[in-house]
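We store amino acids, tokens; thus:
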Amino acid sequence: MSASLQVSQKLQHQRQEQQQQQQQHHYESSCYLSSKSSVSKQSFTTVKTSTTRRQKTTVKTEKGQEVLKLSPLPKRAKRTYLAMEKDKEVIGYVVPVFRASHDVVRGLIEAQDETDTTEEGINYVAMRNLFVREAKEVMEVKVEKKTRTTHIRESAERIELNKTMEEWSEFRKKMNPDSLTHPPEFIVKPRGQTIWEGNTLKLHCTVAGWPKPRVVWYKNNVLIDAKAHPEKYTAESNYNMHSLEIKNCDFIDTAQYRASALNIKGEASSVATVVVKRFQEFEEAGPLPLKPHGFCSEHGVTFETTILDKFEVAFGAEGETLSLGCTVIVYPNVKNYQPEVIWCRNSVPLKPSKWVHTHWSGERATLTLVHLNKEDEGLYTLRVNTKSGFDTYSAYVFVRDAEVEVEGVPVAPLDVRCHDANKDYVVVTWKQPAVEGSSQILGYYIDRCEVGTHHWAQCNDVPVKYARFPVTGLVEGRSYVFRVRALNKAGVSRASRVSEAVVAMDPSDRARLRAGPSAPWTGIIKFTEEDSTVGVVPGDPSDVVVTEATKSYVVLAWKPPVQRGHEGVMYYIEKCISGTDTWQRVNTGMPVKSPRFALFDLAEDRSYSFRVRCCNSAGVSEASVATEEITVGDKLDLPSTPGNLVAIRNTDTSVVVIWGASKEVKQLVGYYIECSEVGTDVWMPCNNKPVKQTRFVCHGLTTGVNYVFRVKAVNAAGYSLSSTDSDAVVVQAAISVPGKPTGVTLLEALKDYMVLGWSAPAKDGGADIRGYFVDYRTVKGDVVGKWHEMNHQAVTTTSYKAEDLKENVFYQFQVRAMNMAGVSETSLHSAALECKEWTITVPGAPVGLHVLEVRDSSVVLLWKPPAFNGRTPVSGYYVDVKEASAGSGCWKAVHEKANRTQYIKVKGLKPGTAYVFRVRAQNLAGVGQTSAVLGPVLAQTCPGTKEIYVDVDDDGVISMVFECSEMSEGSEFIWSKNYQTITDTSRLTIINEGSKSRAIFNSLSMEDLGIFSCVVTNTEGVSSSYTLTEEGIKRLLDISYDKKFPVIPFKNEMAMELLEKGRVRFWTQVEKCTSACQVEYVFNDVILSHGKKYTMNFDQSTGIIEMFMDSLEVTDEGTFTFNLVDGKAKGATSLVLIGDEFRELQKKSEFERSEWVRKQGPHFVKYLDFTVTPECDVLLRCKIGNVRAETEIIWSKDSIEIAEDDEDGKKIEKQDGELTFNIGKISKSDMGIYEVFLRDDRGKDKSTFNLTDAGYQAVMNELFSVIANSSSAVQVLSTEHGIILYSNVTYYHEEQRVGWLHKDAKIAASERVKSGVTGEQLWLQINEPTEKDKGKYTMDIFDGKDGVKRVFDLSGQAWEEAFEEFQRLKAAAIAERNRARVVGGLPDVVAIQQGKSLNLTGNVWGDPVPEVCWTKNEKELVSDDHYNLKFEHGKFASITIAAVSTVDSGKYALLVKNKYGTEAGEFTVSVYNPEEDEAE
């Protein structure tokens, strides 16, 4: 890299007052990158230097170049950035390293940008040149003289170069991975494209950000998984360049594609629209045909959207999870085409978040609200967009408050938001809750929490009344969330849902961050002719105003000063009380950074003026212009009371309320509606989130209940007064006109009249059908006439006799129904009917078909007889049924024989299936024509359906009760017997009370057999029936008798128990009784009274009756009775104590009394007994009580006292009132009678344990049990002799029996199979095992009862391993026993005189007889004249060395060897010469 510094002179201005000219030198640094150098990243600062006059001289350097020489600097000049030598020669320019933080740099830049001053001139421009050069080239200063034309051209080139450098610097800032972290930003956004079907498309984008953002692609807000569909998509990311390739584009690829970039600092998105076009072949020329509304040219069809399975009005509680869903059908179904599904709340589209989850399966749209909060309340709308239009469906979601922890406290506030965030200040707002609790809300507490921590800090010490609060003292650059709590006299509410996170930073910084990433500033340093602003006191702020004023605080705002230098400024706020000239600084200790400030602790109703000063490191500015006097108080008034409220019926569970808006209200938040049941003073909120409309539908009300409503307005100042209560309204469905009648048919015809019949409408509109109107018209071929009214007075039946007709003329008829709301639409007209006399003999069609008591599996069908009976009377009816979706050939008869009644209960229906019905009448001539088809009728029990039940009250009165929760205005209960309305009141008395009707039997008897039913008019067919059978009537009469003559029921009959001191308690317990219940205590027909001998007690709350006696005497033998009287109910219980039972009880009583006397002195709580420890030690134990220090405790055995110094005395221990005698391992020598005596001045007691005979055997049996249960599982051990099965026990006693079984047969002892005990090991040894020894082995250890068995299965792998180990050990033993060995005869060392003969013999053993050889110094010897080697009788091996010499000295060995092994007997031979020894 190379760099050059050019200095040029330019004449800028000629001033009138001055004669001298000023030269302005532009020093610029141009730089470029090369492959062998790098640019160090530095920060630059802008410095303004003062304009000074200097003399110019030209000198030459050592290299012969001319340079500009300046005069010495003035004494008061600011620090220069010209690099000079000692003789003041300029050799270059130095830009100081900027050491401030990035935030300070950003603040300085913004402070300079905000000033509106313009730079008048530039004296010096210095730029940092930090290029590293391999040869460390020296910077050069050149002076050139240029013409004006050249100067202008070079200036233009410099401007272009500066622009290029700035663009490059900005690009480096965005692309530099080492810069400060900042959110993602799209440098190059993906562009929308249009492409033909079948081609491949590629979307590109470039994203900057640090840390490196992760980029994902979406299609219509659905994530694209390229790895899951490699045949369709390919996504690539290389060097911040990202692309999405869509292969073989189809029409369904037409969509909005979104690239989303995400890192820890935030998220950015960019959308591109892709349109895939399709070729249209054989398109006809000419004008385009008209297309229907919503026609989709891409698909050539009109899409029709249908929303099914719609979600209803939903109710949830805070903290719960709620799901809404609808089934969406788009017709026609175009392959791979999906509509756009949007969910909205209060007309605002919802975005997926941690609180909102949406899902579209292709057929069903689902919205899930996680952890409901009151903010989630509102009108939810599902909008389905297609190419042809859209369809919507809406329903309201109500969210009730969670249960409060303390009764009476308010519920949590809602909708906490942050506004006007600055460096150290933010305004928090919220909405007041609907429920204030048991008292009015006194104020609110605001809490804050720094993001990333879990510590909540309270922002205000005094509760604030306004729903708006300025939070100060924030740390710049940090993120915070807020929550609010309400306070009343009962306590503090739960906290609201936390707000969205907000960053404490300057609004200009926030705008800059939204516009692009923040990175270290690398710009050009500018020096102007003006005085340096470093160290300049800032100017005064302007436009100081009071933006908010309440009783709690006042908020000031102002504009920053124009002149503030290159460093950030802070502000001091001062206040002055009206009428004084004294200004007091408010924030002396902590100046603020934001041009807003909130003042607290001001005196209410006092007037103040405010002003602001700026400050920086150079000093404090002049004060701003003071504000006008402001009186501290609430500027925002409470809303006025809303207008009168009107409540209107809507549905069975909702009411519409309308009210007049508050006339005097500012900043209205909304309205809260409350409801209360008439007769109570309990008000409940209808909405938990304020609504701004003046009309609201209150859902979730109880049908048939009278309610009144009221409304109150709310703004930030608080609640208004509640409106006046509305008129009471009953929650019932609003009345509407009825539905259309159906099934207009001909019932009978003569020459001049016809009888018509039809079916009543399915919906009566909430009111009774008052009548019908019939219209007619004539028909001649295909020509029809006009409709004419047949009757001017409404007919009340579903049939009508149309008279004055013309014979052989065809007519059509239609019918309209009428109720109090009006006349319905006309029914479908009948077929063309000819007016001529019938000659048929069979009856006509039955009419008036309708259903009652619709349930999941049954329905009651009723009808009326035909108008035309035929030649003979009707004798019966046939009913047919089929599923509504089945064909005409699927009719099935409900019964085989003719039904003589005009009703029938059709059973065996499928739940949720729709059915249709028809009826035919029969007479002697045959079966007539079928009735009009009734239906479809859905076999489904409506929610809330109740059945008739029979009740018998306390007076024995029998009645039938029916309740209806869907009562509407004008609804009545109609009782019937066998589906005929009851008019005779001699048998039944009917009483109606609200939504309940009771039919009371005057005197129930067998005359009342039959089906009783009840129908509620003006409802959706609410009805039920109850069948009284002969058995049912008898059962009800029995219950009635028990009610008339009641008996007090007892939980327990009288019982007796003995208490302490021998007292006797007689007691019983009744199931229920009243406070008037009385008890009479009787003994042998004599009434007892409370006294010394008898004590009585009756606890009516528990029903327990008690009588106490101090003792039982001979005279107390007899019968004890408790007689009870409770109103008209009576009861008695007795206990007989006579004969042996009484005498036995008397003895027990006396014993208990003597026991009580005994326990007054030292006594045994538990008498002497034994226990066996797990270590098999026998202990004698007893527990004593009421013992003092002076109480004597004496142990004895066989009437001989055990002294403390005796050996047995050391076995006695006393601890925590328990005496222990440790016998240890018991033997027969320990047999005897053990006694313990207790005595002092209060009394004495004795305990004895007989450890002989039966006692000793009991101890031994317990010992045997402990030993047997301590035995371990049987294990196997192989030896050279055979297999051993063994088990270990804790201890073994010689008297304990142990038996072994093989295959459940006892093993007899023999030489081959033996059993025994060694120490604590019980074993069974099997010598020389064979295959017969395989099988299950059982060790039976006697435990004093049945014995403890330990089983081991010696077969399979266990046998194979054990037998293999036995054979191995046996072979090893044989080998060891028969291997070749030297058993003796050879010495270790032999010393012999030279010349003598040596003879040694070694004893040898081995089977077979071993091979023998002798070695000397590990070399084998051969028998010869010198060595004579012999082996005799297979046992003796000898060696003879004749005339030994010193040569024969050495290490000898006798080696023996056979097939089982080899062994060597080694010895040393030392030959000595006596003569040599003497010489030595």
User: Anything to note?
Assistant: The first helix runs from residue 102 to 114. Confidence is low (pLDDT under 50) at residues 1-143, 281-299, 516-533. The longest strand covers residues 266-277. DSSP finds eight helices and 110 strands in the chain.
